């Protein structure tokens, strides 16, 4: 049974999520519209392609950083970040299908509040020349990837995604289910990137998160949380070895 305060908080959160979604779809028009650059050149179109790719890759890295922070640091009671990041990620380990029951706003509203902040700050980026074009397109690409992260993550947990989604997963343009399934094994300490998962092999190879954890432990003395929740190693109906579960 939810208290009045809980209900009030939920309504406020939903209103903020709607505002975030609306701004995420409208502010990019302003960010890109302010670029003062000749767009009818090959260099401009190459800059746009590279900027979009850079932003999309950066969103995969940022998704990994936020996911890693939620999985490994703090508790559900940590100020602000506990209920918004730590709790959802850790509950997701024990009930990985819960995310598939979220509607569009529940799935994407949270991230849109973050992308709105990035988009507003990106209005301060240079407006002129190819560098300005690259930075602004990269900012919009980053926000598109962040906006879509929870949606891609949700699709990776669906038992029977629509054909178009399966195709995007098969082409590895978005997070594939069998790739993400490798994260869902206790102690949930690998493959944190959940937009496309493109960076996971590289970050694993250079032991990126292990080095960060070692450094944080050395500096603060705090040890990372180790989740021993046993959960079937299945995502999207696909087992970690890629076979159908
Ligand atoms: Zn996790
Ligand atoms: Zn997951």
Folded structure, characterized:
The chain has helices at 4-33, 42-72, 81-94, 104-122, 129-156, 163-170, 177-181, 200-205, 208-220, and strands at residues 234-235, 238-239. It has 245 residues and is mostly helical. The chain has one domain. It has a two-stranded antiparallel ribbon with strand order 1-2. Helix 1 (4-33) crosses helix 4 (104-122), helix 2 crosses helix 5 and helix 4 packs antiparallel against helix 5 (129-156). The longest helix has 31 residues, at 42-72. The structure holds zinc ion (ZN) (2 copies). Residues 67, 71, 89, 93, 183, 188 line the site of one zinc ion (ZN).
Summarize the structure.
The chain has helices at 4-33, 42-72, 81-94, 104-122, 129-156, 163-170, 177-181, 200-205, 208-220; strands at residues 234-235, 238-239.
SSE map:
Elements: H1 4-33, H2 42-72, H3 81-94, H4 104-122, H5 129-156, H6 163-170, H7 177-181, H8 200-205, H9 208-220, E1 234-235, E2 238-239
Antiparallel strand pairs: 1-2
This protein binds zinc ion (2 copies).
